[in-house]
## 1
Amino acid sequence: MTERVQRLRRPIGFFAVLTLALGVTAFITRDQWLWSVQSDSVEFEVPEAPELEVETPDERLFRIDIEQSLATYRVAERLVGNENVAEGSTSAIAGDIIINTADTSASTVGTIVINVETFTSDSSLRDKRLRHDYLESNHFRFVEFSTTEIGGLPDQIVEGTPYELTLTGDLTVKETTAPVTFTGPATLQGDTLTASMTATIELATFDAGPISIAGLATSGETADLVFDLVAVSDADAPEIDDITVDPEITDDDPNSSFSAAVQPVLEQNCASCHVAGGPGHATFALETAGDAAEVASGLKLVTESRYMPGWLASDESVPFHDDRSLSADELAAIADWADAGGTLDVPADTPIIPSEQILADVRRDIVMRGEPYAGDPEVPDDYNCQVYDPQITETSYVTRFEFEPDQKEVVHHAVVFLATANMADEAAARDAETEAPGWTCYGLADLNSTDEGARVDQVMGWAPGLQPAVMPEGSGLKMEPGDFLVVQLHLHYDHEAPLDSSAMVLQMATEEELADGPLDSVVTTRYLGPAEIPCVEGDPNPLCDRELAYANVIERFGAFAGAIPLGLNRLCGVTPEDFAHMNQGTASSSCDLNVTRPGEIVSLLGHMHELGSWMRMTLNPGTPEERILLDIPVWSFEWQLTYSPVESIVLDGDDVIRLECGWDRSLQPGADLGYVMWAEGTGDEMCYSTISTRTPAE
């Protein structure tokens, strides 16, 4: 079959969920995990601060000495259940100070500049997380403090005497400037001025926290920023060139357990995703022994906490294929190696080779590319739909398919739908509403035709790290003449909105595969439960009033979004009053749902947002046939997977699926969310699952 490349006619989408229906590996949010095993190489760039000039004989200029000064942050942290204070420092700090010996009130503290990209703590994982997600130091390398007022200066400075000073001014972090006051002692001794000044800042003020990584770490709402300064009279800041903060990697330790105990674990459980050719290679690489040694302590942390490899299902679930959870012995091997210093007994450039290749190939029978689209950087989350029309003229089956993002830095996720031919006119009308390609879409791609037989089904989802969707042998995604795909792109803009033209690649069943007749059909069914999470008692946020919160959902996402919480509550036989007592920070819901599409289970998926705490799917609860299909005792927004049962489990029309979801507001400390209900935004919530089933050909 020859490749067919088509420029699309344009857009479509569903709930802004990060789901995948037919894949078999991680469905992950790239921006939230990119930091974890990236190279730790950071350029040590000395910041340039505005230079002050002496104008009278009574003024003395002091310049911060980078070799003797430090900027330090301290923040309360709960790391894998343990309370401690995280501390990171950098000597990349610069600034000038002028002391007027005749009139101390005329003294000046110039702008102090810090290179925050070089903050280093006892955890490389923490450092990367701060740099990438919270300080965004790849875009905003420097933090500045500009003093507007100095308090506590004596009328006359006595050398060797410490004076308790206050420096009031403006702190700029990323794109936010806010007032901050530093306090602490300062001492003049000869040609040297020393000071230790501390300010307590609200992390949320500067969009730098609080930090919350489900299953791994949370932080307090405030942090201390400390300047330990040594400024030398008439001294230029030392020039430091070509310095990095890479840890030294040794590969000559004969007592290291790396090659015998650790490398096999990485090759069996990690390398398939994170070496060249793996689905996770675009976001981080774990290609050599040196890569592993560089983050040895971090590998111990994320494996012991079971944050990685991403596998949320507990042993109460049915057995699944591709179980990546580590055994107690494997966890101990990594921990012992890291505790011994993470040294190597092989050269640092020794390749880490995956034990098996899991990335599926997709024959490029049909390639469809969207019309170039760019949103507005002032609207950071853009949901755009386009029609991807494979121009099917006879009953056909898609056996493998893959979404190919164009602008990977802004394509956050994609959801793909199959729409029937009699919805084409409605899709064209939606597309014509604006000059830009496609339309803004929520719900079932915002296509709501009532024509007989009109249908929109979710068929797959994509997020960084997801491999192509592969139908079980002898089955496929059935498409009738005129059926088309609708791709909803969630585009997340940081600073720019480049033109995106992402593609869908389809592998179609061959004549040989169809020689014995039609293939079995794989379909995906959503099983949804209510999401109603009242505020903690006493919360003053006006949106804690459910009526106001409900109106806010409609204002943000339209009338269809408002119908969802009402419909789910009615479907599951509950009202908002049933959740009113859940006002201490946690909430949960349960709903029994009839199986609507019988067949053999191909895969299971659960989905919630960042308040998600736990989830469970149970088949025929309370009966002798009860089975827990999927149990996730500790939910993580960052690791969303599909799970494929090892054994054959066949659903029929008399079966019931119980979907249960739990939420915990403490997972997002400092978030002022109001009453949370089912809606599209990351700050909203869902109780969402899918079951993909295989049904015999008719």
## 2
Amino acid sequence: MKNAVLPAPTLRILWWLPRLAFLLFVAGVGALLWFSDKSEREEQRATLISDMLWLEQNMRFLLSHNEELLGRFDPQRIDLPDVFDAHARALLANNTGIRQVIWLDRSHKSRHAMPAPTDSVMVGEGQSPVPMPSLSQLAQSLGHAVYSPAYPIAQDDWQFEVHLPVFRAGQIAGTAVGIYSIRRLLDDTVPWWLAERYRIAIIDQSQKELGVRSKVDPIDPGNEYQMQFDPPGQGLILRALPYSTPTPLAGRLISAALVLLAILFASSQWALRRHVQRRLAAESALQNEVAFRKAMEDSVQTGLRARTREGEITYVNPAFCRMVGWSAEELIGHLPPMPYWAEEFLDETRHMHAMVLAGEAPAEGFEIKFKRRNGELFDALIHEAPLIDSDGQHTGWMGSVIDITERKRTAEVGRQQEERLQASARLITMGEMASSLAHELNQPLSAISSYATGCRNLIATGQSSVEIDAALAKCQEQAHRAGRIIRRIYEFVRRHEPKSEACHIDALLADLITLIEADASRQQVRIIRTVAPALPVIQGDGILLGQAILNLIKNGIESMRQTEEGQRILSVAAHQSNQQVVITIADRGCGISSEAVAQLFEPFYTTKSEGLGVGLNICRSVVEAHHGRLWFEANPEGGTRFFIALPFGKT
């Protein structure tokens, strides 16, 4: 006979049936315990309310009875001390909650009191918000008892007063005052069996306890019951907090045991299921993670290389294999020297290899020459980091290798182009200043010609050699002047490699102003130079710094074309501030528009119709190459002020 194969719906029902039965069993036991607990709590609540209603009636009866006793004072015999004392002593001694009795006459003045006013605890020591005469007057006007608000007294207690008018022959004879201590009232009215069940307290509207029957804190504060305490009222509340009472455990032990067994079984099944699920999930996550990391390492363009602490290669990614030309199988397990080490730089490579294994590799990385399989050399930037296993042990080194050959070639091309651009900018500047420089050179040449003619005339007339020598000296001085001008122009425009040398800012500014002074005079611009004495020496390239400063001076002169001739003043100043030499070029020109501020230092941006837009960009590049800073701001006198801050001793 063949085994019957149950249909899929039946299999699903059989799979769910024991689980459903187990859940129903647990739910039934839980419902039984819940209903039992709820019934018990409702019964306790009903008992609490019943007890509190009884206590309220008892306290109300006591207060009413005390009012009746206070009203029994005989006004005709009240002035006899023995009569008042006997009646007051009876009130104080019969568990009435009253701590003091006072008799006030018709004018609301105290005539008798027990205890006497000299007692240690008196109404006078309290802080009653309503004076006693006012309450007495109110009671006499109403014709019935009046209760005062509760107020604190000494010995950490609270009290309130009852004022009862006493009549004689239909006329007010006086007022009997009973002063209740809240603590004593609770002690006298709450029986012991009630105090064993609840914590009875009288509180105010802010939930502050004014008196309490028991000092033990309740275990079940959430099941409290409150009711208004009236009389005396005045916002007082009577509150009961039940104590936790032991309940019989016999009925619950079997249910608890069943629930415990069910919970243990369910917990074990659930824990086993969760363990299997977590294991499967962990295995799946591990596979996904390994696949992801493998895909990530295979896709990056940065070469990755792992080595042991002895230098043996344990891992290389495809990018590193493509970079050097050897496969992973050929490299893994290889010990130094590596096949990709360049023979020309073998000593340097061994030295860096030893530094890495010793943990002394530069944190910012280092550059080294490697060799491809075809013999081609390339520049590599390497960062090394320690490999730490799951136990926290240092097992080797992980290096990231980047081929920076093209980057270095591009940087070199950019540097050469920037040098050509700077040289071109200097030639353009000299071209723009050509006419002024020609005029500047014409003066010493004309003077030389004049002095030479004078010498010939002196010789022809037979003058003394002293006069001829003086004329020749002046001629020589003018020739030197012309030579200096030509030398400055030559040094400024010729191409040269950037260099670092001592640069005196005061001398540099003097030469630059001499060079531009002729062009400034032609445009009716007056240059004022202010240099602080004993400026520190700057290490840098004087020609490049001169180009940057001259370009700013030239821009300042050109910006004052529309300025009135008397106001065309260009200020060039230098001073020391915070370990820096600060150079200021201030003009009184048209200023810089808000639209041009954001793009002012960008290459090829210009506000001139014939400009190339590279001057300020070159200035900033030169200043930043000297570790300085270039910025500008509006000149309070009109125009713009440019600032160049150069640090001491930086190249």
